[in-house]
Design brief:
Blueprint (H helix, E strand, L loop, with lengths): L2 E7 L9 H5 L8 E6 L9 E4 L9 E2 L2 E2 L2 H11 L10 E5 L12 H11 L3 E5 L6 H10 L5 H11 L9 E9 L2 H16 L5 H11 L6 E4 L2 H8 L1
Length: about 230
Amino acid sequence: MKIAVYSANFGDYRKEISTKKLDNINFTKEIDYYFFTDMDIQSSKWNVQKVTLEKELDFGGKKCPMTKSRHTSKKYKFCLPEILSSYDYVIWCDTKSLRNINNLSLNKIEALITDKQKSIYLIQHPHRKNTSQELKATLQRSMEKGSDIQKFREKINNIKFNSVLPDTTTIIRKVDDQYNQIFTQIYHLQLENQLCRDQNIIQYGFYYTNCESELFYFKSQKDLRDKLH
């Protein structure tokens, strides 16, 4: 099984990235590592891909506007870069959660996928169970515009989800045309509904693309590390 890990950081969002921090994990020889950025970062461990920023968009809350850097992060998180298209599975990891990919075991990853027979592996959100709860929390924190939240609430009001809200810091997923299109659709749904936060759209995205039966959830980030390290 051919697996790649990928991450991204644009404009040094949250001031959390440096070559030292990026390289300060135990890398697995059988896994390839890619990092997408607009910054001049050098690494002997990661295949660094410098890319141009997407355009700024006019939505998001006061504390979470859809800047060029944020928009570009969403694009690379959900729309699989061409350089990753030859892998069987890819693992996305936010730069704030790099310990989730520290010392990964290819054998354990393969065993999990063989055992569970799912195509998308997620982490349960630690505090909230559904999109409605997440929308409320992000509105209270001024992370989305109230008018956009209200429109989206009306859209999902009568939906019965067969999934729970994920924490999107780490996502493992199959690479093929079907699942590439599913995640690309999630990105487009995010823009169409003018939502800045991944966790406000992703559960609806899985419902919309009819793939809720393909989801496996780790109980927590620690559970993921226990199972895959």
